[in-house]
Amino acid sequence: MLSDPVPTVRQLRLVVEAEDHEAAVAFFRDALGLPEQAAFSGDGDARVVILDAGRATLEIANPAQKRMIDDVEVGRQVAPRIRVAFEVDDARATAARLVAAGAAEVAPPTLTPWQSLNARLDAPANLHISIFEELRTAEERAAPDGSALDDDGPG
What we know:
- This protein has 4 helices and 6 strands.
- It has helices spanning 21-31, 63-73, 91-100, 138-142; strands at residues 36-42, 46-51, 84-87, 104-111, 116-123, 127-134.
- By secondary structure, the protein is an alpha+beta fold.
- Strand 4 (104-111) and strand 5 form a beta hairpin.
- It has one domain: 2,3-Dihydroxybiphenyl 1,2-Dioxygenase, domain 1 (Roll).
- It starts with 20 loop residues before the first helix and ends in a 13-residue tail after the last helix.
- Strands 3-6-5-4 form a 4-stranded mixed sheet, with helices on one face. It has a two-stranded antiparallel sheet with strand order 1-2.
- The chain is 24% helix and 26% strand.
């Protein structure tokens, strides 16, 4: 008798409570450019907007890795337990646009040892975020001599 297959995860959805809902939606939808998938409202002024963030991954880092990434990207320990990272085409332009839209710059775009350009920001909804631009192709990152795991990345 065959056992039941392992359930397949079809989507990762990060749910964030935002005191200033309108400002958070404007920042992530309009400034960062996450397309709106759906919006719902209910009794008592309950509101949610679901934004499409493209492909999702769950990155599990131990405390030493989290500290190392903070040191590389910022030069000091700043990230809370959860940090949200967004891959973009142009880290410098995106970081500047997000600061103009209300984010606080924690660290400017910084070249990492794993060849990405990463900026740190404190964003609306009390989220600490990374904006990162991959400077190598997926093939270059996967090559035995260019593997992100070989140089302590990604992150």
